[in-house]
């Protein structure tokens, strides 16, 4: 099966309207997308990924208190001039990089009605061509060209494409989940998505393949989302709209292909996984990764590193550090 008359994916949508409640109080005044992952905000990793895939037109769907996102991808003339006067070319280059990452646009979601509604807000900007959706909670290692693979799958099979990843059975209820079948003659890792369910009850998942935060969607998804009612959690679920397209592969824009990803993914969606992402990315940072790995190894084996709880034997959540 080959998609006829396909259009190259040239636009990406990044939903960024969430409140970040799992990271309170840090996200009370700072958008969760701006929380640093080593030495740059999480959202910059996502935009850089789109750029590497050849997508330079990016729409961020934001909400209230997200002005910092716009500031980050704008020029900061005063800071740049100060760095230039000091002759600090390296930091000047780093500051300018975020402002030179493609053509970043912003639109407000208005009210938090779910991922499906956030995607629907992009309809006017996207138009009638396939487009990518990248969620900021999932960072994909730059060595793993997942988005490129998904774009190629969409060009080959048409319809929409979702990224899938095997997760432990006791965690699948935290994700959207896919039931899949083989595609005759397809490359390894490409499957047909037959059904989807958002956060299935424990023991009722059709597989251990979770939907992770990368999509390449046909523009027909907008027509489906416009009549998709609230689903799980009272929100408009993108998974529900994709299910409709998966069940009608012969309709225009129908059919859903899955790309099973086995590469490096950094989950910044909760506090523990955020810390793991910081360690994994910090350990391979080109400037200080070797020193950090050496320190980390020695610290884990130290008396402090072996302490199970706080110094007084009681667990703490970090709120009582200080003199």
From TrEMBL:
Region (Disordered): 302-323
The keyword Metal-binding is assigned to this record: no
Keywords of this entry: Nucleotidyltransferase, Transferase
Catalytic activity: alpha-D-glucose 1-phosphate + UTP + H(+) = UDP-alpha-D-glucose + diphosphate
One of the record's GO molecular function terms: UTP:glucose-1-phosphate uridylyltransferase activity
Domain Nucleotidyl transferase: 11-250
Bias kind Basic and acidic residues: ranges: 303-323
Signal peptide start-end: none
Documented EC number(s): 2.7.7.9
NCBIfam families per UniProt: galU
Family: Belongs to the UDPGP type 2 family.
Protein name: UTP--glucose-1-phosphate uridylyltransferase
Organism expressing this protein natively: Flexivirga alba
């Amino acid at each position: 099966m080959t998609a006829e008359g396909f259009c190259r994916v040239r636009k990406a949508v990044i939903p960024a309207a969430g409140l970040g409640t799992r990271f309170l109080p840090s996200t009370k005044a700072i958008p969760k997308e701006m929380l640093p992952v080593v030495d740059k905000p999480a959202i910059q990793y996502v935009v850089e990924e789109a750029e590497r895939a050849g997508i330079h037109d990016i729409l961020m769907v934001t909400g209230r208190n997200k002005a910092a996102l716009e500031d980050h991808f704008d020029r900061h003339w005063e800071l740049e001039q100060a760095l230039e006067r000091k002759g600090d070319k390296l930091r000047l280059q780093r500051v300018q990089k975020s402002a030179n990452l493609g053509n970043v646009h912003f639109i407000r979601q208005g009210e938090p009605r779910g991922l499906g509604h956030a995607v629907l807000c992009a309809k006017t900007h996207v138009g009638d061509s396939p487009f990518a959706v990248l969620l900021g909670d999932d960072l994909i290692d730059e060595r793993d060209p997942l988005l490129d693979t998904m774009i190629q799958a969409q060009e080959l099979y048409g319809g929409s494409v979702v990224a899938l990843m095997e997760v432990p059975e006791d965690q699948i209820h935290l994700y959207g989940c896919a039931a899949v079948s083989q595609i005759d003659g397809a490359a390894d890792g490409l499957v047909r998505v037959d059904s989807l369910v958002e956060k299935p009850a424990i023991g009722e998942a059709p597989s251990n393949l979770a939907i992770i935060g990368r999509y390449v969607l046909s523009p027909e998804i907008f027509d489906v989302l416009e009549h998709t009612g609230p689903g799980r959690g009272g929100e408009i679920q993108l998974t529900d709209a994709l299910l409709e397209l998966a069940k009608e592969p012969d309709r225009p824009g129908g059919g859903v292909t899955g790309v099973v990803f086995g590469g490096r993914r950094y989950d910044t969606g909760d506090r523990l996984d955020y810390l793991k992402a910081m360690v994994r990315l910090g350990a391979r940072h080109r400037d200080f990764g070797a020193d950090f790995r050496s320190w980390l190894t020695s610290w884990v084996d130290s008396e402090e590193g072996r302490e199970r709880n706080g110094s007084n034997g009681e667990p703490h959540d970090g709120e009582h550090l200080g003199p």
